[in-house]
């Protein structure tokens, strides 16, 4: 299972995704906490670490992070 670090802007629908290889879950979580501290004053930014076998599966199971706001 791979870990994906997602930074999602709820207002604009923009996202950034960083993929971590299997076995690097702790590093993904460390990065998540750092990004949460960085964006703590912006209520529109959501940071999450999600596990999935592939990016395509992640986009299917967590589609809200990948749809643009209109």
**Mean pLDDT, rounded to whole units?**
93
Query: How many DSSP E strands?
Result: 3
Straight-line distance between termini: 32 Å
What does the radius of gyration come to? 12 Å
Total count of helical runs of at least 4 residues: 2
The percent range for strand residues is 25-35%
- Morphology: flat
| Helix content class | 25-40%
Largest sheet: 3 strands, antiparallel
Strand order of the largest sheet: 2-1-3
Q: Point out poorly predicted stretches.
A: none
N-to-C series of helices and strands: EEHEH
Which class best fits the helix and strand makeup? Answer: alpha+beta
What does this structure look like?
With about 70 residues, this protein is α+β, with helices and mostly antiparallel strands. Helices cover about 30% and strands about 30% of the residues. The protein is built from 2 helices and 3 strands, in the order E-E-H-E-H. Strands 2-1-3 form a 3-stranded antiparallel β-sheet. The model has no long low-confidence stretch (mean pLDDT about 95).
Give the helix/strand layout.
Elements: E1 2-9, E2 15-20, H1 25-38, E3 45-52, H2 55-61
Antiparallel strand pairs: 1-2, 1-3
Features:
70 residues, alpha+beta, three-stranded antiparallel sheet, 31% strand
Provide a concise account of the structure shown.
The chain has two helices and three strands; from the N terminus they run E-E-H-E-H.
């Amino acid at each position: 299972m791979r870990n994906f670090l997602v930074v999602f802007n709820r207002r604009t629908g923009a996202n950034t995704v960083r993929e971590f290889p299997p076995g690097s879950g702790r590093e993904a979580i460390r990065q998540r906490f750092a990004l949460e501290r960085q964006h703590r004053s912006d209520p529109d930014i959501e940071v999450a670490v999600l596990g999935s076998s592939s990016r395509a599966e992640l986009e299917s199971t967590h589609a809200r992070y990948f749809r643009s706001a209109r």
